[in-house]
Structures are given as structure tokens and as C-alpha cells.
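pls ignore typos typing on phone
inosine-5'-diphosphate + seq
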Amino acid sequence: MAVERTFIIVKPEAVRRGLVGRVLARLEGRGLRLVALEVRQLTRPLVEEHYAHLKEKPFFPGLVDSMVESPAVLGIVEGPDAIEVVRRLAGPTNPVEAPPGTIRGDWGLELPHNVIHASDSPASAQREIQLFFGPGPGAGR
Ligand code: IDP
Ligand code: MG
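k done
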């Protein structure tokens, strides 16, 4: 059990639907702590870099469009085993397969709109925190 930091995005479609408070309440209710939080209109180059590993997928253009069509909410979340805990709270990628009680299972329905992004490993968390927040106060200790 190690204290970790992970990176989340409440995706634009979920922000438009007014789900930010409920999504963050799930994380805070679990005992995790927000150490950075920002509403931001994402740019296409930043999203393309974030999802670079998916560049060859047929859904990539639609995924990028979905992330830049309106503002997102970006956060850094801290706590014991935060990376795995937040992934489990989010649930499986496809909301159709996500069980009730998970964020995606309760509020998602159709890809690419699955409510939340969460880093999937310590290496991803470090890379994504740096990519979206830089080496600022939210990123250090
Ligand atoms: P993850 O968000 O659970 O880590 P990834 O495989 O990293 O899932 O995919 C990144 C994002 O791409 C997903 O959250 C979802 O928005 C979108 N996506 C993944 N698979 C599909 C698909 O088959 N169709 C449309 N969008 C998809
Ligand atoms: Mg992923």
C-alpha cells in the first residue's frame, strides 16, 4: 500500500450533463483527496498526445472530437493505491459492460462517452500529470 497520485478527466459530455459534482463525490467519498482541479477547454494536439497509443484505432478521430467539443474537468487525485482504486471506481471502458455502482456503469451508456478518464498505471499517471499540469505545485509534493 503506497500513497499514489493519479490523473483524471471528467470528460466533456459528462461536464455538459452536470455530472462533475457526483463524479468527484465518488472519489472523495472513497477517501481520496483532490490535489489539483481545473475546468479547461482541451486542445486537439494535447488530446492527440494523451491518446497517442490509440492513433491507429478506427475510433480515434471521434474520440479526439469528443474530448475537445466543450470544456473538461481535469484533476489529480491522491490516496493509498489511488491508481488502481480510481480505475476500479471508474469501471470497464465500455459502459455497457460496466457494472452498476461504478462511475461508467451508473452514468455512461455509449462509447466514446464513458464519463471519466483515469490513468491506468504508475507510468501513465506520471506522464499524464506532467502532460496536463506540468511540473507545477499540483504535480510535486
Ligand atoms: P480506458 O479509458 O478505459 O483506459 P482506452 O482503451 O485507453 O480505455 O481508450 C481510451 C478511450 O477511448 C476510452 O475511454 C473511450 O472513450 C474511447 N474508446 C475506447 N474503445 C472505444 C471503442 O471501441 N469505440 C469508441 N471509443 C472507444
Ligand atoms: Mg486508457
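Strands lie at 3-10, 33-40, 72-80, 116-118. The helical segments are 12-16, 20-30, 44-50, 60-68, 82-90, 103-107, 122-133. more later
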